[in-house]
Amino acid sequence: MDQSTEEAAFLAEYDPRAYDPVGVAVDTVALTLIDGRLNVLAVKRREHPFRGLLALPGTFLRPERSLEVTAVDAVRAKANISPGHLEQIGTFAGINRDPRMRVISVAYLAFGPTDPQPESGWVVGRDVVWLPVFHGTWKFAFDHEDIVEAGVKRAQDKLEYTALATTFLPEEFTMSDLREVYEAVWNRPIDPANFYRKVLGTKGFVEPIGTKRRNAALFRAGDATKLFPAIRRDLGAWS
Amino acid sequence: MDQSTEEAAFLAEYDPRAYDPVGVAVDTVALTLIDGRLNVLAVKRREHPFRGLLALPGTFLRPERSLEVTAVDAVRAKANISPGHLEQIGTFAGINRDPRMRVISVAYLAFGPTDPQPESGWVVGRDVVWLPVFHGTWKFAFDHEDIVEAGVKRAQDKLEYTALATTFLPEEFTMSDLREVYEAVWNRPIDPANFYRKVLGTKGFVEPIGTKRRNAALFRAGDATKLFPAIRRDLGAWS
DNA sequence: TCAATAGTGTCTATGAGACATTATGCA
DNA sequence: TGCATAATGTCTCATAGACACTATTGA
């Protein structure tokens, strides 16, 4: 590489316009609990490519919009979920993941309660459905199966050491409601008695309201964001 | 929104070319241990914008290259680190992070031993330096301070539940070498006796070679990737 | 009054951490 | 032979989980 070539390469390295454009999409894994089961929001594609297949709600990033706003709007446009939590999962950038051109996708994870509660398999609008994550296998467009898997795994991890489980629930909930969130997201049963004490022993996770529903005390979310001690999933014994 | 406008919006949603381009950069937080201290690789910028400030090694994504290759090459071009581990941290996309145009950065974390061992503050090449992370504060260009912080935090987390600490070390190492990795990345002292037994009690983390250096047994990396039980950092008691 | 769920009691096993003690190899 | 570091012993405390038991409320 001679001097001028090196200089050109150097300048190009620092000039974004020197390269062909790469498309940037934002796709969201929106999770909610329906009837005790974890569900993910999907859209049936009406256009090329992958016409007819399921895809995550998403759109292309516009230069003047933030990733977060883009991620939330894509979900709001399709369903009545109000994400109590939004976080970035990561960026998926396989070279041929989109047949049209190079497109990378910044994936987001959103979860929250839906109101009113739909049923599992519920068709929210034209070509929009909630799919029960652990009950059936779903064929997605692009690499969206990978993204869903990463999103679910992230949700599972986050329930261990953050207080985010409460964002799946309405403001008031019982201990069983909260346990149901863990059971749905982790897809395994949990001992009610031990769960009860573990949650109460975790500072700031929930606080009692004082009222009851049937014979169950009602709680609201506490002010903790990180849980200590964590609600452990004992991964070593499982995966 | 009338029918034709809606249709146009719908089509645009699925056509990447319908939007102004967004630049995609890849920046890498490359970490290594120098003299028992955690160091990060930085480049002094020679061009606008932020001329003269420190930045992470990085470049723009070309349509035909993968993120991972781009991330590793950016580091290899600057220093003699051979990343034993590479993972994506996340995508940083603040709207005005780059004054030239909208540029999002997919950030990667790399770590591994350097050979030969440089000294801390070592100038690897023209305008390339290793900076001791916890000894001094460094002013970076763009939002690269945030990216470094996220990278270091990710490294700290990963040492808890993965066997990646060994990738900071050469093939043969003593228990003290391994403890030094944890102390450098976590930036706090660890009881040698308890660490010793905790590591040996963690299936597949290290295996003894049988030989010694001074009076210390030598080990090599085991075949485990996830650690169980994890080497816990007791975050609750700290942050 | 019965059934289902909520909530409490109790025991065991595991692992983290403090810190004392012994072993090893080099100056 | 003495010193630094390696390696082992021993104790305490916190927490997870199994499972038996009692309490409460609606059908």
Break the fold down into its secondary structure elements and pairings:
Two copies of one chain form a homodimer.
Chain A: H1 3-13, E1 23-34, E2 37-44, E3 54-55, E4 58-60, H2 67-76, E5 85-92, E6 103-111, E7 123-125, E8 128-132, H3 144-161, E9 173-174, H4 175-186, H5 192-200, E10 206-213, E11 216-221, H6 235-238
Parallel strand pairs in A: 1-6
Antiparallel strand pairs in A: 1-2, 1-4, 2-3, 2-8, 5-6, 7-8, 9-11, 10-11
The first copy, chain A, binds a DNA duplex (27 and 27 nucleotides) through helix 5.
Features:
homodimer; about 240 residues; alpha+beta; eight-stranded mixed sheet; 6 helices; about 25% helix; DNA-binding
Can you tell me about this structure?
Chain A is elongated. Mean pLDDT of chain A is 88; it is low at 1-12. In chain A, the strands form two sheets. In chain A, strands 1, 2, 3, 4, 5, 6, 7 and 8 form an eight-stranded mixed sheet that branches. With 239 residues, chain A is of the alpha+beta class. In chain A, 35% of the residues are buried. Chain A has six helices and eleven strands. Chain A binds a DNA duplex (27 and 27 nucleotides) through α5.
Q: Radius of gyration of chain A in whole Å, from Cα?
A: 21 Å
As residue ranges, the low-confidence spans of chain A are: 1-12
Estimated helix fraction of chain A:
25-40%
Sheet/helix structural class of chain A: alpha+beta
Number of strands of chain A: 11
Biggest sheet statistics of chain A: 8 strands, mixed
